[in-house]
Design a protein that fits this description.
138 residues, 4 helices, single chain, mainly alpha
């Protein structure tokens, strides 16, 4: 399984409210990772609950992030929104597979979480942060 990503300064995008939301996403993802390490029925229920919470909070975060992008007239908003929609679709798929007890989900879910949290924030979200910083003259 991928090493659990930890929120650190390398994930800061420079927009305080987005950074706080990203920190919360890492916290929820940690609950998912913790639940994947156990294999009993109770752990499966915890995994389902954690994945549902992650999906719900992700939707809230993406909506907020996109609103900030729109307010900043971010030229890559459409592409970023498309990335968000793709991630939500993948997350829904993972949620369904968790719900139905797919045995391959733990490994795939850990890869998905790692790639989404780390790669998406490091590349796409940081690009938006740099755009906002340039607008502010920083």
């Amino acid at each position: 399984m991928d090493e659990r990503p930890q929120f650190g300064d390398e994930f800061l995008v420079g927009i305080d409210e987005i950074d706080a939301e990203h920190r919360r996403l890492f916290d929820i993802a940690a609950q998912v990772y913790d639940s994947l390490d156990a294999s009993d029925a109770a752990a499966a229920a915890v995994t389902r609950q954690a994945v549902a919470e992650l999906l719900d909070y992700t939707k809230t975060h993406f909506t907020h992030e996109e609103a900030l992008m729109e307010a900043a007239a971010y030229p890559e908003l459409a592409d970023h929104r498309e990335l968000h929609n793709h991630l939500i679709s993948q997350a829904h798929d993972m949620e369904m597979r968790v719900e139905f007890g797919d045995n391959y989900v733990p490994v795939e879910l850990s890869h998905f979480l790692y790639n989404w949290l780390v790669r998406h924030i490091e590349v796409s979200d940081k690009k938006f942060g740099a755009f906002v910083a340039a607008q502010r003259g920083q």
